[in-house]
Amino acid sequence: MQIFKPASGHTHSTVQKSVVNKLNFYYGGYQALKNIDMMVYEKQVTALIGPSGCGKSTFLRCFNRMHDLYPRNHYEGEIILHPDNANILSPEVDPIEVRMRISMVFQKPNPFPKSIFENVAYGLRIRGVKRRSILEERVENALRNAALWEEVKDRLGDLAFNLSGGQQQRLCIARALATDPEILLFDEPTSALDPIATASIEELISDLRNKVTILIVTHNMQQAARVSDYTAYMYMGELIEFGATDTIFIKPKNKQTEDYITGRFG
Amino acid sequence: MPIPNNTDHSPGSLRRSYKRYLKERVIELLLFLAAFLSVFITFAIIYLLISESLVFFEHVSVWDFLTDTQWTPLFDDAHYGILPLVSGTAISSLVALVIALPFGTIIAIYLSEFAPFTVREIAKPFLELLGGIPTVVYGYFALLFVTPLLQTILPDLPGFSLLSAGLVMGIMIIPYVSSMTEDAMRSVPMHLREGSYAIGATRFQTAIKVVMPASLSGIAAAYILGISRAVGETMVVAIAAGMQPNLVWNPMEPAATITTYIVQVSLGDLPHGSVGYQTIFAAGLTLLLLTLVFNILGHLLRKRYREVY
Fold first, then answer.
1. Which of B117, B202, B213 sits opposite A113 (nearest CB)?
2. What is the extent of the structural domain holding A81?
3. I need a labelling partner for A185 at 20 to 30 A (CA). Which of A156, A192, B80, B280 fits?
4. Residue A41 backbone dihedrals phi, psi, to 5 degrees
């Protein structure tokens, strides 16, 4: 049994970026999320933890309406996005607009069959940016923010598949950053990577927390403790406990949360 | 507790079983023969075409064959220029591909990226039905329906034309192109599409900018297959394009293709061994080389744009 050292040395913000109100989600007839209430604070890292099948990825994917891509999925409740104070789950909201502002990085690195440059420029190009000078500037910025610029600056024309797994994942982060999203969603971003690449991605997430609001799903509790400011523990589609990461990891209120964090189950 | 005695087996239990070994070898041999047979037949056809063509080229120089602009092997004033047949083949194929490739691709994009499950399940069998119609039916469809229809727009169109044959051939090839293209696009993993959607791309942008480049090798294979079919198609052009070997580049004229010429001579009463009869082997060899070029091209494309996910 081990108590993990929580992330420290950076200020907790209490500015609300997003508020989740009574969120229910259904895959056809199956209810995957039950009555979830949660806060997402601006420029903070919020980790979603819990055993497999608890609904943490499902919850994350609600934030950029990824469930709209498949038939018979159905949301109830609200995810309010500030400063608009609008419910992004409302049928009047265009999921494409939501995804323009809330971007996502996936479990498995998924670069497109294009050059490194075109991968990062993709989000800008689909928004109609054509000026070469603007593209070059934004691509360089995104690659710098993703800590990849130094490694690829001399081979921006190479196919993205030629990069290593960790580099591909940082490229996907650069791709998501290029369009200046307000919230960045990470769905187990290191589960397909080796320990060294994992460390570099975690470091990157720590660096990014001052620039963008981050939500991260992780199986790895040490990772949640290391990178996050807030932690939500989920079980069977419900949010069991939510609070500052220090509190959740050192003195959780709920017995179930404590059991999971200390490795007694899950 | 007694320690189990490991040496207490009947001796020789580890020895190779000859019965099993023999059975495996027989199966291996049968599989090899099946594979060998198809390769053997291919080479036999190539051997036949080349050896018979050599007889033809003893009478006609390769230079004349490739440059003469007339193809009249059955006339008293015989000319043996393959160009008129090649032009007929090229024009009818071109017309067919102008129809089949864009429509096939559009249908594939719709079915793979846009169509709801039920629509796809209903539409695919119908498309495959289109591919199952005998080509002779397409030929008469071209001659008796499409040509008169075209004549209302183009009054100068003759009763036999490459245009009409090519159009119908294009319709005929659409299912081949669309079904192979769709398979290639559907095999692109979902997580690649999600990566595109997740940063705000529309379905169309995702289809054009991510899914199509990712499945390029499969799409290239589909196009090559379409081209090969158009070049090798016989019945539709034989019925609807006329059989006069004309060196034309205008689709609104009647002309013969390589395949229709071979049919014409095979069904005729030319004596075997005459130069006139040998022409069909030279024509067949030309056709084989043409399709070979496309297959090699397809192979190179596949290697160039190999899928890596």
1. B213
2. 16-261
3. A156
4. -95, 145
Domain B83-304 CATH assignment equals 1.10.3720.10: yes
Give the ipTM of the model, two decimals please: 0.88
Residue ranges of alpha helices (H) inside A102-164 are 116-126, 132-145, 149-152
Tally C-beta pairs within 8 A across A and B.
Answer: 76
CA distance to A116, B90, B146, per residue, from B177 (Å): 31, 19, 22
Q: Where are the beta strands (DSSP E) in chain A?
A: 16-27, 30-41, 45-49, 73-81, 86-87, 102-105, 183-187, 213-217, 230-235, 238-244
Distance separating alpha carbons of residues B243 and B264, to the nearest angstrom:
8
Phi, psi of B200 (to 5 degrees): 95, 15
CB contact under 8 A, A114 and B205: no
Whether residue A92 lies inside any domain: the answer is: yes
Q: Name which of B117, B197, B213 is nearest A99 (Cβ-Cβ).
A: B197
Taking CB atoms and an 8 Å limit, are B191 and A110 in contact across chains? Answer: yes
The pLDDT tens digits of the residues spanning A98-130 come to 998 999 999 999 999 999 999 999 999 998 888
pLDDT of residue B266: 82
Give the C-alpha separation, B157 to B187, whole Å: 44
Is the pLDDT reported for residue A3 higher than 50? no
Residues A193 and A205 sit within 8 Å (Cβ to Cβ): no
Report how far residue B172's alpha carbon sits from residue B229's, in angstroms, rounded to the nearest whole number.
10
Report how many domains make up chain A: 1
> Which residue in chain A has the smallest CA separation from B189?
A110
User: Is residue B4 scored above 70 in pLDDT?
Assistant: no
What is the value of pTM for the model shown? 0.82
CATH assignment at residue A180: 3.40.50.300
Q: For residues B189 and B309, is the Cβ–Cβ distance under 8 A? A: yes
* Residue A92: exposure state from Cβ atoms within 10 A (0-12, 13-18, ≥19): exposed
In a domain, A177, yes or no: yes
